[in-house]
């Protein structure tokens, strides 16, 4: 895989839309490692072998796309992009609080995908760096607290 090529997992309840998105991802030279209409398969694969980015569309038979997005965000294993219909925009505001890294509105094209993937990956990396720094500072604080207690 080249430096710019990423492994992308895609889940969408509409087969035709999923094929269009997958084709656009391949035009961008990304590898679509999973293209499914089954959200549970996406969630499982993200746990087993996290991709660079997971893209979640809508239209699933028995699953709410927002629940799937929230589950993936809680896993915190990869950047997550919501691929929504325009009627879902009002509901999308809460996704930013749930660590979803990007939101696209259908229909999408190569340019939309390229930009969203870049921004989602960047935000995911920044979040990871921030979490590592918080852990580091917490460790220093704990060490300092223990040293103070032992000095009494």
TrEMBL record:
Listed name of the protein: Response regulatory domain-containing protein
Gene3D superfamilies xrefs: 3.40.50.2300
InterPro entries: CheY-like_superfamily
Protein's organism: Stieleria marina
UniProt lineage: Bacteria, Pseudomonadati, Planctomycetota, Planctomycetia, Pirellulales
Domain of life, per lineage: Bacteria
